[in-house]
Every structure is written in C-alpha cells, then in structure tokens.
Amino acid sequence: MLYWALMFLVIALLAGLFGFGGIASTATGMAQILFVIALVLFVVSLFAGFLRRNS
Questions:
Q1: pTM for this prediction
Q2: Per-residue pLDDT of the chain (55 residues; tens, 9 = 90+)
C-alpha cells in the first residue's frame, strides 16, 4: 500500500511540474488517503503482535 501511495505522490509531483493542477490535486489526495490507511494498518498489526506475544 505504501508503494501505491508513493506512486501517486510521484504522479502528483510530475503533474504539478507540468501544470496539470487537477490531476496533481487528485493524485495528492489519493496518496494521502493510502498513506493514512497504511499507517492505521501498521498500528493495528503492531498492537495485535504485542497482544499475541503477551498472551
């Protein structure tokens, strides 16, 4: 998931560089959403690992 977030970030940067503001803002939004989802999944798996190890 982080791979896709980075790909959307690269697309946003390239689109912004070439002047495609709409595409850049859409790609930036998708990159942010995917990054937050990946971060939440990481934290959930981290807590699940701690709970499993302590039981």
A1: 0.79
A2: 789 888 988 999 999 999 998 989 999 999 999 999 999 999 999 999 999 887 6
Tell me which residue range forms the domain holding 21.
2-54
User: 16-52 b/e with 16+ CB inside 10 Å = b?
Assistant: eeeeeeeebeebbebbeebbeeeeeeeeeeeeeeeee
Taking alpha carbons only, the member of 41, 35, 40, 39 closest to residue 27 is 35
Crossing angle of helices 21-54 and 2-18, in 10° steps, is: 160
